[in-house]
Amino acid sequence: MKLSNLYMPLLATIMLASCGPTQQQKEQTCCDLQKTIDFASKQIGRQVQIIEESGKILNPRTVYNGKIEYIPKDDWTSGFFPGTMWYMYDLTHDKKWIDYGIKYTEDLDSIKYLKWHHDVGFMIYCSYGNAYRITQNPAYKDVIVEAARSLSTRFRPVPGVIQSWDEDRGWQGTRGWMCPVIIDNMMNLELMFEATRFSGDSTFRNIAISHANATLENHFRDDYSTYHVIDYDKVKGGVRHKQTAQGYADESAWARGQAWALYGFTVCYRETKDPRYLAQTDSIYHYLFTHKNMPEDLVPYWDFDAPDIPYEPRDASAAAVIASALYELSTYGRPEYKKTADKIIASLCSCRYLAILGTNGNFLLMHSVGSIPHDSEIDVPLNYADYYFLEALTRKINLEQS
Ligand code: GLY
């Protein structure tokens, strides 16, 4: 063992100790953006270096048993690491990130044909969507349109929704599913809107709007919290079950689900200017930021109704998704949402959530949650927490410069 490794736990303890309440409070009112970007550059640089040295193209998702977990291309999170390269370029203007972005994005080419789950929107839009935005390479448009064609095969016209998972996904419990749709699916619609713009085929946009409208009607409770899973009847139409898969209970509010809802309806408003979608984001905002269990640092517990709050794990990924959505929403006549987003980002930039260089599997953020009911990825780094954190930083900087 190298001497420096021996000192790491001690160093971590000293750094954590220096993150006492006073300093933490101080950090929560501001975030040194340049320091955070410099740190991200080094930390993600280490992630890339390990992959480059392996001679393979690898796609990191999290840390499991002390080791970086690399995932196959058809994992729902495969678009986030390539997408991270593109946001690193946005934040640093260092052209090396373009080279990495192209390499890791183009590795996902075959995903445009993926039809066995709905996450092709996340996978292709976070990678190729950003790749096209930055390079304007027309070949990337074709990938996005082909992926939208694949996602369209999961559209079920009677309930008017894109089916998220197959009926036998394995998380259905004893009730059985016919057409499960999870709130996360709102995040796949951005790909569909873009595909219509690129192809001129309005089918994709129409599917996205149909899905958003069904979600508006069926996924929310009276207090504007969202269910995780709605199981539709794809023959007769209508809803069969309302339940959870990754939340604490069917009637609880899983934090990342609320984040996907906020972000998804923000995109739908951007694309359609339908005031119902904007009103929905306002209602979700109200639910989140008046909730008695929203912590002071605005990084939610993994479920708003988890039984042991304040001793439950936080979910930094949900916070990052919410912050990113709020920066966009602030440009739709809601300047106060930027203040909330800034507060979230200040928390995420503090040493409570931002890792120490060379630790945390070289991911940026600590303290996210994958799925507690499945005993999976509890209080870990996650590639999508980092992706949306960098997206939020990029949006914040763009807003402040404009
Ligand atoms: N889309 C799966 C998740 O948010 O965990």
SSE layout and pairing:
Elements: H1 3-17, H2 21-27, H3 33-54, E1 60-64, E2 67-70, H4 80-92, H5 96-106, H6 120-135, H7 138-152, E3 155-156, E4 161-162, E5 180-182, H8 189-199, H9 203-218, E6 229-232, E7 239-243, H10 255-272, H11 275-289, H12 316-330, H13 335-349, E8 368-371, E9 376-380, H14 383-401
Antiparallel strand pairs: 1-2, 3-4, 5-6, 6-7, 8-9
Helix pairs in contact: 4-5, 4-6, 4-14, 5-6, 6-7, 6-8, 7-8, 8-9, 10-11, 10-12, 12-13, 12-14, 13-14
This protein binds glycine.
- CATH class categorisation of the domain at 1-70 and 294-402: Mainly Alpha
Please count the beta strands (DSSP E, at least 2 residues each): 9
In the CATH classification, which architecture of the domain at 1-70 and 294-402 applies? Answer: Alpha/alpha barrel
For the report, how would you describe the main beta sheet?
3 strands, antiparallel
**Element pattern in H and E:** HHHEEHHHHEEEHHEEHHHHEEH
> What is the CA-based Rg, rounded?
20 Å
Helix content: 40-55%
Average residue-wise pLDDT: 93
Contiguous runs where pLDDT drops below 50 for at least 5 residues: 1-18, 21-28
Q: Which structural class best describes the helix and strand composition?
A: mainly alpha
Spatial separation of the terminal alpha carbons: 50 Å
The dominant shape is: globular
If strands are numbered along the chain, what order do they take across the biggest sheet?
Answer: 5-6-7
Number of helices: 14
What is the CATH topology descriptor of the domain at 1-70 and 294-402? Answer: Glycosyltransferase
* Small molecules held by this entry: glycine
- Beta-strand content: 5-15%
